[in-house]
Recover the amino acids of this structure.
């Protein structure tokens, strides 16, 4: 792939920014990559491992001369960072982000974007339970989707250019309206994460079953939940606080359905359970056929 | 390892029985392995791939002369199979099972066991989302736990022999009382499965989000749930119907906790969320340190 941007500034240097840096370098998509993180420790590690070409001491310095700035900080921190960098943005530059929530980011960041700067929110649907500057890897986005969420007046050429970058990093792109994005993600990500966190918390908190029992006997299903529930706490706190309505709506539907299944258990309605469990198998097949997960048993788990 | 049993009869030829056959052969633990499955198709496939040494046309025939009989059928079918084989069991033989629920299996199977035959329930905590005679593999039990649930009057030597077999197949063994087993498994397996089934069912059923959207954008967390929710419907129907009380108790605790977190989201209590999400990370670390899951990001998922 040819170079898409001359200078890309990554604000925040965690899993996503780190993976972007690796992926951009793999394919020569950026002339120079600058980076900034609020934590001195993170900046130190990033410099040490050469995560980006230049680690800067401020967000303002990092964005100077950049034709693409990507905000890779927790959703709750986006507005503050936008205010900080706004005066230092080049005319014609694009500001994007990788936040898991889009309406709240648009409301927090949008007002700070100066005239002549493009603002194109985005969300790569990829991640792992790891976080920090050492957690990124070039393949994270391969064959995953990146949703582009243009705002009113987003420039078509600037959108296409950003999509080229994501495609260059291995992703497939699609465009979506902000509120719909937040609802879809409440289903495919936010509600499942809250549910996993809850189940793991309950297991940890039961007096009658020890933590050792939970840990040793987790291979029967529970351990899958613990992976999700090991995700970054700050990021997820911000997701829930900023996608409140959609998450609560989906959790409401979930609870309703869970009650119906509990009732089927209580009344011994085996047919209801069997039919429900048969239907859910089909969704799994769809995901495998769409190339969004492996068909290897147990995810082809690396032997521990 | 030396041979532990002269003739092992596997009743039911799905994932667990198949994996036992592979594991026993790997280590020469059984002189002969016979097998029977109710479905003619399953018996045909088993014979075709040489899953066991001899596929029999009835459970009665399979258990003749066996010094170990392992019931590998759904929990709801255990009682019927026990009644069928009882008259054909050799004196001194051991009958065991691999059911995910123990109290109900003891109640269903126990009364059929003739004098002079040992009954030693067991439960290997291992599995994948795959089922059927082709799904087994020798490594399934390696480093996983097999819980032995002796009943009143279980013979110590017979218990030790069964534990040797499981250890020979790669498992670690522990002994547990039936009701406690059912509670522990409600936490580490049954409740998580029902929750995963529920979430996948909800996603499938939402008018405002299409199935294609759910499938394509599942990499953000949801796809982990779909693996669990692709497990065998008959097996899981029987699990819930036969571990009703413990499952409903844990689901009750889960719902209570979920409501508390929903309330924290609604009221914007970020500290509560952050603390909760930080605590759940520790459980994941415990599971990895105990060798019950891989530390590779995303389970070291095989690339799709």
């Amino acid at each position: 792939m040819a170079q898409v941007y001359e200078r890309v500034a990554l604000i925040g240097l965690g899993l996503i920014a780190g993976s972007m840096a690796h992926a951009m370098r793999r394919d020569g998509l950026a002339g120079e990559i600058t980076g900034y993180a609020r934590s001195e420790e993170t900046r130190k590690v990033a410099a040490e491992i050469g995560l980006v070409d230049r680690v800067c001491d401020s967000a303002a310095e990092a964005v100077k001369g950049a034709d693409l700035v990507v905000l890779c900080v927790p959703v709750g921190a986006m507005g503050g960072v936008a205010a900080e960098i706004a005066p230092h943005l080049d005319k014609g530059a694009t500001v994007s982000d990788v936040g898991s929530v889009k309406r709240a980011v648009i409301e927090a960041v949008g007002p700070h974007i100066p005239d002549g700067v493009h603002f194109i929110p985005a969300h790569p649907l990829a991640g792992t339970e790891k976080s920090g500057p050492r957690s990124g890897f070039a393949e994270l986005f391969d064959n995953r989707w990146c949703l582009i969420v243009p705002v009113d007046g987003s420039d078509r050429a600037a959108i296409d250019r950003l999509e080229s970058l994501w495609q260059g990093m291995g992703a497939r792109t699609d465009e979506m309206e902000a509120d719909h994005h937040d609802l879809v993600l409440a289903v495919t990500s936010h509600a499942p994460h809250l549910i996993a966190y809850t189940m793991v918390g309950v297991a940890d908190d039961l007096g009658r079953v020890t933590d050792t029992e939970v840990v040793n006997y987790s291979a029967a299903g529970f351990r899958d939940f613990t992976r999700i529930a090991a995700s970054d706490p700050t990021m997820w706190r911000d997701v829930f606080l900023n996608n409140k309505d959609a998450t609560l709506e989906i959790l409401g539907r979930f609870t309703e359905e869970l009650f119906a299944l509990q009732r089927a258990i209580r009344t011994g309605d085996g047919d209801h359970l069997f039919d429900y469990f048969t239907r859910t198998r089909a969704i799994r097949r769809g995901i495998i056929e769409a190339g969004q997960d492996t068909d290897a048993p147990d995810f082809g788990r690396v032997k521990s």
